[in-house]
Specification:
Order of helices and strands: HHHHHEEH
Mean pLDDT: 85
Number of strands: 2
Structural class: alpha+beta
Largest sheet: 2 strands, antiparallel
Shape: elongated
Low-confidence stretches: none
Number of domains: 2
Strand order of the largest sheet: 1-2
Helix content: 40-55%
Length: 114
């Protein structure tokens, strides 16, 4: 059974159980994901959530505004696909493409072939 991000945030004491419950109630009304809702409600900072997800999933996080993206690599993934899965191609080394993605657990995005 997958661990829910809200449970991790409570365990790490980044949010309270009550804050998580409020976010889940908000989610039931508006839809969306709990993490961004907790940020929107100002219960957790975006940087703290990103750092937690990075540690939990064992993937590095980057600030795209501080990263130089090779223009040639951006053509590897069609713009529609990049928008659909919220991915940004960053660099290419041999046959390995490095991407940034908003949700590293999105298996459908990783399986997509252009």
């Amino acid at each position: 059974m997958p661990v829910r991000i809200g449970e991790i945030l409570v365990k790490e004491q980044l949010v309270t159980t009550q804050q998580l419950q409020e976010a889940v109630s908000h989610q039931k009304v508006t839809g969306g994901k709990v993490g961004p809702i907790l940020i929107e409600l100002d219960y957790v900072k975006d940087e703290d959530l990103t750092a937690l997800l990075s540690r939990h999933y064992g993937v590095p996080s980057i600030n795209l505004s501080q990263f130089e993206i090779d223009e040639h690599v951006t053509r590897v993934i069609p713009p529609e696909t990049a928008r659909k899965y919220q991915v940004v191609p960053l660099s290419c080394a041999g046959s390995t493409l490095m991407i940034a993605m908003t949700d590293p657990t999105d298996v459908l995005a990783m399986d997509e072939r252009s």
